[in-house]
Specification:
Layout (H helix, E strand, L loop, with lengths): L4 E9 L8 E10 L4 E5 L6 H8 L8 E8 L2 E2 L5 H8 L3 E4 L3 H4 L6 H11 L7 H10 L5 H5 L8 H13 L5 E5 L7 H17 L4 E5 L2 H7 L2 E6 L2 E6 L2 H4 L3 H8 L33 H5 L5 E4 L2 E3 L6
Parallel strand pairs: 3-8, 3-9, 6-7, 7-8
Antiparallel strand pairs: 1-2, 1-4, 4-5, 9-10, 10-12, 11-12
Helix pairs in contact: 7-8
The structure holds iron/sulfur cluster and magnesium ion.
Amino acid sequence: ITSDFCVDHLCVAFPNSMKSANVLSDINVVFRHGIAAAVIGESGCGKSVLVLALLGLLPKYASVHGHIFYNSFDVLSVPFAIIQSNLSKHWGIIPQSPSDALNPIRKIKKQFDDIGKNASRGNFSVEELCDSLTSLGLSDIEKILQSYPHELSGGMLQRILFAMAVCCEPEWVFADEPTKGLDEQSRQQVSHNLLHLKTKKTQSMILITHDLPLTEEICEVVVVMYAGEIMEITNSVYTNGLHPYTRALIAALPINGFNPIPDGPVKNGSSRQCRFAPHCAYASKQCKHSHPNLYSVDDMHKVRCFLYA
Ligand code: SF4
Ligand code: MG
C-alpha cells in the first residue's frame, strides 16, 4: 500500500459535449508521495480534468476508462461516499479563487472548525491557528479569526486558504493555478508560501499551473500536457525540457520574447499522428502518419516524440 497516485491507462471523454473526442487519452503517470509535481500546459490540454480524476471528482456523465490507484483503492471505481469519508481527508485543496471558496456569512474561525469537524478532529485552538497563520506572514490573528471574508484583503484570504488546506495535516496538497492573474509581488508571496508548506507541512504536492518559473522553484517533477496527452515528464523544463512543445512553451515566455505557439493548441487531432505535428518545426513524414509513444530518455525522464525514440 502506498500513498502514491498511480494513473494507469486513464481515458476520459465527455460524450455529450460538442467535442466528442477524448479529453484525456491513455494517461500513465505516477505521482510519488513525498515529491512535488506540476502539471503544465495550455488551457484545454486536460490538466484540470486529470486533477479532478485524481480527486474522484469527475462528473457522473464522463466516460472513464483505466485506473487511479491510491492506498489500495481505485479512486475511479470506489463510491464517492468512500472517497469523502476515507480518502479526501488526506487531501488538502487550495482552490483557485479565494473569494468564491469561503463562506461569506461565516467567520474565519468557524470555517476552520468546519474543516476540523469534517476530518473528525474537532475544533482548532486559537493557538494552533495563530501558529499556522503567523508562519504564513499574517498578524493580528485573533482579529482575523473573528472576521468575515469580506472584511479581509485578497492576499489575506489566500493565505487563510493555504492554512485551511494543510490544517488537518493532509498527505497531499493540490493547488489549482495558484498564481493565475496575480501581480509579480503577490506571485512571489504565493511562491514563498508554497515553498513554506512544502518544507514545513507536506512534500507531496500537485500544482496545476501555467507558471513555468513556479514549477522550477517548487517542483521536482513536471508533467507537460498537450491536447489530452502527456508529452513529457521531466525534473525541469528549463534545463531538461526536450519535447518540441515544451521548448515552444519556454520560447513563449515573456522573458524569451513572447514567441507564441503558432495557431494555438490543436485539440485532439487524429490519433494516427503526433498531435503536435501541425505546429512542430521538426515534423517528418513519420510524425504525420504514426503516433509517438512516451519514450524513456532515462529513469526520470520520458518524452513523446520520435526524435527521442
Ligand atoms: Fe515534432 Fe515529430 Fe516530435 Fe511530434 S513526434 S513533436 S511532430 S518531431
Ligand atoms: Mg483548467
